[in-house]
Automatic annotation (TrEMBL):
Any GO molecular function: lyase activity
Protein name: Sirohydrochlorin cobaltochelatase
Superkingdom to which the source organism belongs: Bacteria
Pfam families, A to Z: CbiX
InterPro entries membership: CbiX-like, Sirohydro_Cobaltochel/CbiX
Keyword Lyase recorded: yes
Length: 283
């Protein structure tokens, strides 16, 4: 039976690494197949060790699911490149590659649960939600966060759902909070669009606490939970049956987006991954 390989980006935050490990264990109890997980950079266990464990157990085909919310550079380039290197290291190894997790109704439900943990439903009508993503140099990835924000807004009785990013894209968290304030929100809930704890979610919370001029509450990240496991199992099954319907209509590698025309048809150049000694390009 085809094993599940969870591909994470990695974090220097120990709590985030531990949460990833617990999530891998949760999936091991859910699926009747071998499950392994690893990171492409920043923290252990490295992806190469996870692949080696499955290969050593006799597996020659794996279903790889990227644990990312949007299809930015890591999902489009770095993770496939890392998996290609593993094929070169392990004769006979093949893999199917799944699509990112969001936006998805399950994620919207989990975000709503995190919102409800800090906001009484009776307060929704005069509350703004600021959905904060990681931020990317890929406009398609940033647009996916905006799409998730709009889907979260629809039908839930919230005053508004605005979008901000903690790095590489705008508006920043302080700018997003100020926009909500100027639009007249009585209170603002900062909702991190992140899977697990880490350096960037901590930065989001810190910037939210530092904002003055409005009541600001900060919700938790999605985290290790059954709902997230349900979604990963769905993505795993997609890879097995070939039903991967990634929307590439706005991908900068396929169409000439203003300001990104030079990326059309460009080869992928993954950046340096310290845990993979075969890759020597500098940042």
């Amino acid at each position: 039976m085809t094993p599940l390989l969870l591909v994470g980006h990695g974090t220097r935050d120990e709590a985030g690494v531990a949460e990833f490990g617990r999530f891998v264990e949760r999936l091991r109890t859910r699926l009747p197949v071998d499950v392994a997980g690893g990171f492409i950079e920043l923290s252990a266990p490295p992806l190469t060790d996870a692949v080696a464990s499955l290969y050593g157990a006799g597996h020659r085909r794996v279903a790889a699911v990227p644990l990312v919310l949007v299809a930015a550079g890591h999902a489009k380039g770095d993770m496939p490149a890392a998996l290609t290197r593993e094929r070169q290291r392990h004769p006979g190894l093949t893999y199917s590659y799944g699509r990112p997790l969001g936006p998805h109704p399950t994620l919207l439900r989990l975000l709503e649960e995190r919102l409800d943990a800090v906001l009484d439903p009776a307060e929704r009508a005069d509350t703004a939600v600021l959905l904060v993503g990681r931020g990317s140099s890929d406009p398609d990835a940033n647009a996916e966060v905006c799409k998730a924000a709009r889907l979260l807004w629809e039908g839930r009785g919230l005053a508004m759902v605005e979008t901000a990013f903690v790095s590489l894209a705008w508006p920043s968290v302080p700018e997003g909070l100020e926009r909500c304030r100027r639009l007249g929100a009585a209170r603002i809930v900062v909702l991190p669009y992140f899977l697990f704890p880490g350096v960037l979610p901590d930065r989001v919370a810190s910037e939210a606490r530092a904002f003055e001029g409005a009541e600001v509450r900060c919700a938790e990240v999605i985290g290790d939970c059954d709902g997230l496991a349900d979604l990963v199992v769905e993505r795993y099954e997609e890879t097995l049956h070939g039903d991967i319907r990634m929307n590439c209509d706005a991908c900068v590698y396929r169409i000439a987006m203003p300001g990104f025309e030079d990326r059309v048809g460009a080869p992928q150049q993954p950046h340096h991954h310290p845990d993979d000694p075969s890759h020597v390009h500098a940042h």
